[in-house]
Amino acid sequence: MADVTLRDVARVSGCSVATVSRVLAGTRPVGAETARRVREAAEALGYRPNHAARALRSRSTGTVGLVLPQITNPFYPTLVRELTHALHAEGRAVLLADCDDDPVAEAEYIADLLGRQVDALLVIPAHEERSRDAVTAAAARVPLVLMDRGCGPAVADSVAVDNTAGMALVLDHLAATGRRRVCFLGAAGTASTAAERRGAYAAGAAALDPGAPDRVALGDFSVEWGRAAVDEVWPARPDALVCANDLIAVGALQRLQQLGVDVPGEVAVTGFDDIPMAALSAPGITTVRQPVAELAAEAARLLARRLAGGEEGPRQAIRLAPELIVRESSAPSGTVPAPGGGRRAVPTQTGPSGPA
Prior knowledge:
- By secondary structure, the chain is an alpha/beta fold.
- 41% of the residues lie in helices and 15% in strands.
- It has 13 helices and 13 strands.
- Strand 3 (120-123), helix 7 (132-139) and strand 4 (144-147) form a beta-alpha-beta unit.
- Helix 1 (6-13) packs across helix 2.
Protein backbone atom coordinates (compact mmCIF):
# COMPACT_ATOMS: atom_id res chain seq x y z
CA MET A 1 0.00 0.00 0.00
CA ALA A 2 1.31 3.46 -0.92
CA ASP A 3 2.13 5.83 1.95
CA VAL A 4 -0.84 7.86 3.13
CA THR A 5 -0.31 11.57 2.48
CA LEU A 6 -1.71 14.80 3.89
CA ARG A 7 -3.81 15.08 0.70
CA ASP A 8 -5.45 11.74 1.50
CA VAL A 9 -6.30 12.91 5.03
CA ALA A 10 -7.61 16.21 3.63
CA ARG A 11 -9.86 14.40 1.13
CA VAL A 12 -11.40 12.10 3.75
CA SER A 13 -11.81 14.82 6.42
CA GLY A 14 -13.16 17.41 4.00
CA CYS A 15 -10.53 19.94 5.05
CA SER A 16 -7.75 21.71 3.19
CA VAL A 17 -4.21 20.33 3.17
CA ALA A 18 -3.09 23.44 5.11
CA THR A 19 -5.67 22.81 7.84
CA VAL A 20 -4.69 19.15 8.11
CA SER A 21 -1.05 20.16 8.42
CA ARG A 22 -1.86 22.65 11.20
CA VAL A 23 -3.88 20.08 13.16
CA LEU A 24 -1.32 17.29 12.94
CA ALA A 25 1.68 19.52 13.58
CA GLY A 26 -0.07 21.51 16.32
CA THR A 27 1.39 24.75 14.99
CA ARG A 28 -1.78 26.88 15.15
CA PRO A 29 -5.12 26.63 16.96
CA VAL A 30 -7.93 24.97 14.98
CA GLY A 31 -11.59 24.52 15.89
CA ALA A 32 -12.37 21.47 18.01
CA GLU A 33 -14.75 19.92 15.47
CA THR A 34 -12.31 20.42 12.60
CA ALA A 35 -9.46 18.97 14.64
CA ARG A 36 -11.61 15.96 15.54
CA ARG A 37 -12.46 15.24 11.87
CA VAL A 38 -8.82 15.50 10.83
CA ARG A 39 -7.57 13.21 13.60
CA GLU A 40 -10.28 10.63 12.95
CA ALA A 41 -9.43 10.62 9.23
CA ALA A 42 -5.72 10.27 9.97
CA GLU A 43 -6.42 7.39 12.36
CA ALA A 44 -8.70 5.61 9.89
CA LEU A 45 -6.18 5.91 7.06
CA GLY A 46 -3.21 4.94 9.23
CA TYR A 47 -1.41 8.21 8.49
CA ARG A 48 2.11 8.50 9.92
CA PRO A 49 4.06 11.77 9.68
CA ASN A 50 7.25 11.79 7.60
CA HIS A 51 9.68 13.32 10.08
CA ALA A 52 12.55 13.40 7.57
CA ALA A 53 10.49 15.41 5.07
CA ARG A 54 9.29 17.74 7.80
CA ALA A 55 12.87 18.30 8.93
CA LEU A 56 13.89 19.31 5.41
CA ARG A 57 11.03 21.81 5.21
CA SER A 58 11.37 23.30 8.67
CA ARG A 59 15.08 22.77 9.34
CA SER A 60 13.98 21.13 12.59
CA THR A 61 14.48 17.43 13.34
CA GLY A 62 12.15 17.28 16.33
CA THR A 63 14.91 15.63 18.37
CA VAL A 64 16.63 16.57 21.62
CA GLY A 65 19.98 15.11 22.66
CA LEU A 66 20.36 13.98 26.27
CA VAL A 67 23.85 13.33 27.67
CA LEU A 68 24.10 11.53 31.01
CA PRO A 69 27.14 10.86 33.22
CA GLN A 70 26.18 7.26 34.03
CA ILE A 71 22.88 5.50 33.30
CA THR A 72 23.67 2.80 35.90
CA ASN A 73 22.96 5.32 38.68
CA PRO A 74 19.33 4.44 39.54
CA PHE A 75 18.38 8.11 39.82
CA TYR A 76 18.89 8.72 36.09
CA PRO A 77 16.51 6.14 34.54
CA THR A 78 13.65 7.74 36.48
CA LEU A 79 14.71 11.15 35.23
CA VAL A 80 15.01 9.88 31.63
CA ARG A 81 11.50 8.45 31.84
CA GLU A 82 10.02 11.78 32.97
CA LEU A 83 12.01 13.72 30.37
CA THR A 84 10.89 11.39 27.59
CA HIS A 85 7.26 11.87 28.55
CA ALA A 86 7.57 15.66 28.88
CA LEU A 87 9.30 16.05 25.50
CA HIS A 88 7.05 13.55 23.73
CA ALA A 89 4.07 15.65 24.78
CA GLU A 90 5.64 18.49 22.76
CA GLY A 91 6.25 16.26 19.74
CA ARG A 92 9.97 15.78 20.37
CA ALA A 93 12.00 12.58 20.53
CA VAL A 94 15.07 11.98 22.72
CA LEU A 95 18.48 10.71 21.61
CA LEU A 96 20.33 9.37 24.66
CA ALA A 97 24.09 9.17 25.25
CA ASP A 98 25.87 7.81 28.35
CA CYS A 99 29.41 9.16 28.77
CA ASP A 100 30.31 6.92 31.75
CA ASP A 101 31.55 9.89 33.83
CA ASP A 102 34.23 10.69 31.23
CA PRO A 103 34.39 14.37 30.11
CA VAL A 104 36.31 13.40 26.96
CA ALA A 105 33.61 10.91 25.92
CA GLU A 106 31.00 13.49 26.90
CA ALA A 107 32.49 16.05 24.49
CA GLU A 108 32.53 13.44 21.72
CA TYR A 109 28.87 12.56 22.30
CA ILE A 110 27.87 16.22 22.32
CA ALA A 111 29.66 16.72 19.00
CA ASP A 112 28.01 13.60 17.56
CA LEU A 113 24.54 14.76 18.59
CA LEU A 114 25.14 18.20 17.09
CA GLY A 115 26.25 16.45 13.89
CA ARG A 116 22.90 14.66 13.85
CA GLN A 117 21.19 18.05 13.83
CA VAL A 118 19.39 17.80 17.17
CA ASP A 119 17.26 20.86 17.87
CA ALA A 120 18.50 21.19 21.45
CA LEU A 121 20.55 19.51 24.17
CA LEU A 122 19.99 18.45 27.76
CA VAL A 123 23.25 17.75 29.61
CA ILE A 124 24.05 16.45 33.07
CA PRO A 125 27.75 17.35 33.11
CA ALA A 126 30.25 14.72 34.17
CA HIS A 127 32.71 17.26 35.59
CA GLU A 128 32.16 20.81 36.79
CA GLU A 129 35.34 22.15 35.17
CA ARG A 130 36.38 19.73 32.42
CA SER A 131 32.86 19.64 30.92
CA ARG A 132 32.68 23.42 30.61
CA ASP A 133 34.35 23.99 27.23
CA ALA A 134 32.24 21.44 25.34
CA VAL A 135 29.02 22.59 27.01
CA THR A 136 29.74 26.29 26.40
CA ALA A 137 30.52 25.66 22.73
CA ALA A 138 27.35 23.61 22.28
CA ALA A 139 25.21 26.23 24.03
CA ALA A 140 26.38 28.76 21.44
CA ARG A 141 24.92 26.56 18.66
CA VAL A 142 21.64 25.16 20.01
CA PRO A 143 19.38 25.72 23.03
CA LEU A 144 20.94 23.82 25.94
CA VAL A 145 19.76 23.15 29.49
CA LEU A 146 21.96 21.78 32.26
CA MET A 147 20.20 19.39 34.63
CA ASP A 148 20.98 18.20 38.17
CA ARG A 149 24.56 19.49 37.95
CA GLY A 150 26.22 22.69 36.77
CA CYS A 151 29.53 23.61 35.20
CA GLY A 152 29.95 27.29 35.99
CA PRO A 153 27.84 30.47 36.08
CA ALA A 154 25.95 31.70 33.01
CA VAL A 155 27.06 28.80 30.79
CA ALA A 156 23.48 27.80 30.01
CA ASP A 157 20.00 27.61 31.49
CA SER A 158 19.95 25.13 34.38
CA VAL A 159 17.52 23.31 36.64
CA ALA A 160 18.43 21.30 39.73
CA VAL A 161 17.29 20.50 43.23
CA ASP A 162 18.29 22.89 46.02
CA ASN A 163 21.02 20.72 47.54
CA THR A 164 21.69 23.18 50.38
CA ALA A 165 18.05 23.13 51.45
CA GLY A 166 17.99 19.34 51.24
CA MET A 167 21.01 18.96 53.49
CA ALA A 168 19.50 21.42 55.96
CA LEU A 169 16.38 19.22 56.17
CA VAL A 170 18.56 16.19 56.99
CA LEU A 171 20.58 17.99 59.68
CA ASP A 172 17.48 19.50 61.30
CA HIS A 173 15.90 16.04 61.43
CA LEU A 174 18.99 14.49 63.01
CA ALA A 175 19.19 17.31 65.57
CA ALA A 176 15.52 16.79 66.46
CA THR A 177 16.17 13.09 67.10
CA GLY A 178 19.12 13.84 69.39
CA ARG A 179 22.03 13.02 67.06
CA ARG A 180 25.22 14.97 67.63
CA ARG A 181 28.26 12.96 66.45
CA VAL A 182 27.35 13.14 62.78
CA CYS A 183 29.69 12.15 59.94
CA PHE A 184 29.44 12.87 56.22
CA LEU A 185 30.08 10.16 53.61
CA GLY A 186 30.41 11.88 50.25
CA ALA A 187 32.06 11.98 46.86
CA ALA A 188 35.45 13.50 46.18
CA GLY A 189 34.62 14.43 42.57
CA THR A 190 34.08 17.93 41.25
CA ALA A 191 30.51 17.41 40.12
CA SER A 192 28.51 20.32 41.49
CA THR A 193 26.15 17.98 43.37
CA ALA A 194 29.07 16.48 45.27
CA ALA A 195 30.51 19.90 46.11
CA GLU A 196 27.18 21.47 47.06
CA ARG A 197 26.11 18.66 49.38
CA ARG A 198 29.56 18.50 50.96
CA GLY A 199 29.61 22.27 51.47
CA ALA A 200 26.08 22.35 52.88
CA TYR A 201 26.98 19.65 55.39
CA ALA A 202 30.09 21.54 56.53
CA ALA A 203 28.09 24.75 56.91
CA GLY A 204 25.25 23.21 58.91
CA ALA A 205 26.82 20.42 60.95
CA ALA A 206 28.67 22.73 63.35
CA ALA A 207 25.34 23.53 65.00
CA LEU A 208 25.20 19.89 66.14
CA ASP A 209 28.83 19.53 67.20
CA PRO A 210 31.85 21.81 66.57
CA GLY A 211 33.82 18.77 65.41
CA ALA A 212 31.19 17.53 62.95
CA PRO A 213 32.33 19.56 59.89
CA ASP A 214 35.68 17.78 60.03
CA ARG A 215 34.17 14.30 60.19
CA VAL A 216 34.08 13.74 56.44
CA ALA A 217 35.04 10.72 54.32
CA LEU A 218 35.12 11.13 50.54
CA GLY A 219 35.05 8.51 47.79
CA ASP A 220 32.45 8.27 45.02
CA PHE A 221 28.69 7.90 44.53
CA SER A 222 28.61 4.08 44.86
CA VAL A 223 27.42 1.25 47.09
CA GLU A 224 31.01 -0.04 47.25
CA TRP A 225 32.26 3.25 48.65
CA GLY A 226 29.45 3.28 51.21
CA ARG A 227 30.66 -0.06 52.56
CA ALA A 228 34.31 1.00 52.62
CA ALA A 229 33.48 4.36 54.20
CA VAL A 230 31.93 2.70 57.25
CA ASP A 231 35.20 0.91 57.99
CA GLU A 232 37.01 4.24 57.65
CA VAL A 233 34.82 6.24 60.04
CA TRP A 234 33.46 3.64 62.49
CA PRO A 235 36.39 3.88 64.96
CA ALA A 236 35.16 7.43 65.75
CA ARG A 237 31.75 5.94 66.70
CA PRO A 238 29.46 8.47 64.97
CA ASP A 239 25.78 8.39 65.90
CA ALA A 240 24.64 9.42 62.40
CA LEU A 241 26.00 8.88 58.88
CA VAL A 242 24.89 11.59 56.46
CA CYS A 243 25.39 10.12 52.97
CA ALA A 244 25.65 12.26 49.84
CA ASN A 245 23.38 9.93 47.87
CA ASP A 246 21.28 6.81 48.38
CA LEU A 247 23.83 4.43 46.83
CA ILE A 248 26.36 5.39 49.50
CA ALA A 249 23.64 5.02 52.15
CA VAL A 250 22.72 1.52 50.93
CA GLY A 251 26.37 0.42 51.10
CA ALA A 252 26.81 1.96 54.54
CA LEU A 253 23.70 0.21 55.83
CA GLN A 254 24.90 -3.13 54.45
CA ARG A 255 28.28 -2.82 56.17
CA LEU A 256 26.76 -1.71 59.48
CA GLN A 257 24.50 -4.76 59.43
CA GLN A 258 27.53 -6.99 58.77
CA LEU A 259 29.20 -5.44 61.82
CA GLY A 260 26.11 -6.09 63.94
CA VAL A 261 25.44 -2.39 64.51
CA ASP A 262 21.88 -1.43 65.50
CA VAL A 263 20.33 1.00 62.98
CA PRO A 264 18.93 3.41 64.08
CA GLY A 265 19.58 2.53 67.74
CA GLU A 266 23.36 3.07 67.66
CA VAL A 267 23.64 5.07 64.45
CA ALA A 268 21.23 6.73 62.04
CA VAL A 269 21.75 6.59 58.27
CA THR A 270 20.42 9.11 55.74
CA GLY A 271 20.71 9.39 51.96
CA PHE A 272 19.83 11.76 49.14
CA ASP A 273 17.73 11.33 45.91
CA ASP A 274 15.08 8.78 47.04
CA ILE A 275 15.85 6.08 44.49
CA PRO A 276 13.64 2.94 44.75
CA MET A 277 16.35 1.09 46.69
CA ALA A 278 16.01 3.53 49.59
CA ALA A 279 12.43 2.43 50.29
CA LEU A 280 13.17 -1.26 49.68
CA SER A 281 16.09 -1.49 52.12
CA ALA A 282 15.53 -2.97 55.55
CA PRO A 283 15.34 -0.70 57.42
CA GLY A 284 14.06 1.83 54.91
CA ILE A 285 16.45 4.73 54.42
CA THR A 286 15.60 8.29 55.36
CA THR A 287 16.44 10.43 52.35
CA VAL A 288 15.92 13.68 50.47
CA ARG A 289 13.48 13.24 47.61
CA GLN A 290 14.19 15.12 44.40
CA PRO A 291 11.06 16.33 42.52
CA VAL A 292 11.96 14.38 39.37
CA ALA A 293 8.76 15.07 37.42
CA GLU A 294 9.05 18.78 38.16
CA LEU A 295 12.73 18.72 37.23
CA ALA A 296 11.87 17.23 33.81
CA ALA A 297 8.96 19.61 33.26
CA GLU A 298 11.08 22.68 34.02
CA ALA A 299 13.85 21.47 31.71
CA ALA A 300 11.33 20.93 28.90
CA ARG A 301 9.85 24.38 29.53
CA LEU A 302 13.25 26.07 29.38
CA LEU A 303 14.05 24.29 26.11
CA ALA A 304 10.67 25.18 24.62
CA ARG A 305 11.23 28.83 25.53
CA ARG A 306 14.59 28.91 23.75
CA LEU A 307 13.30 26.96 20.75
CA ALA A 308 10.43 29.44 20.43
CA GLY A 309 12.86 32.30 19.97
CA GLY A 310 13.98 33.26 23.45
CA GLU A 311 17.69 32.80 22.71
CA GLU A 312 18.56 36.38 23.65
CA GLY A 313 17.09 36.33 27.16
CA PRO A 314 19.25 36.00 30.31
CA ARG A 315 20.27 32.55 31.46
CA GLN A 316 17.95 31.10 34.09
CA ALA A 317 19.02 29.01 37.08
CA ILE A 318 16.10 27.19 38.68
CA ARG A 319 16.43 25.45 42.02
CA LEU A 320 13.58 23.19 43.09
CA ALA A 321 12.52 22.49 46.65
CA PRO A 322 13.37 18.99 47.95
CA GLU A 323 11.39 16.93 50.44
CA LEU A 324 12.64 14.97 53.43
CA ILE A 325 11.31 11.40 53.51
CA VAL A 326 11.71 9.97 57.00
CA ARG A 327 12.06 6.20 57.26
CA GLU A 328 13.23 3.67 59.82
CA SER A 329 16.99 4.20 59.34
CA SER A 330 16.92 7.40 61.36
CA ALA A 331 13.61 7.66 63.18
CA PRO A 332 13.02 6.50 66.76
CA SER A 333 10.63 3.57 67.01
CA GLY A 334 6.99 4.51 66.34
CA THR A 335 7.74 7.94 64.83
CA VAL A 336 7.97 7.13 61.12
CA PRO A 337 5.30 9.10 59.17
CA ALA A 338 2.72 7.30 57.04
CA PRO A 339 3.66 6.75 53.38
CA GLY A 340 3.66 10.01 51.48
CA GLY A 341 4.67 11.98 54.55
CA GLY A 342 7.71 14.21 54.65
CA ARG A 343 8.88 17.78 54.87
CA ARG A 344 9.47 20.20 52.04
CA ALA A 345 12.04 22.94 51.89
CA VAL A 346 11.55 26.48 50.64
CA PRO A 347 9.43 27.03 47.51
CA THR A 348 10.88 26.82 44.01
CA GLN A 349 13.27 29.66 43.28
CA THR A 350 14.06 31.03 39.82
CA GLY A 351 16.32 33.78 38.66
CA PRO A 352 19.32 34.80 36.59
CA SER A 353 22.00 32.17 36.44
CA GLY A 354 24.49 32.18 39.28
CA PRO A 355 27.11 29.69 40.50
CA ALA A 356 25.84 26.15 39.94
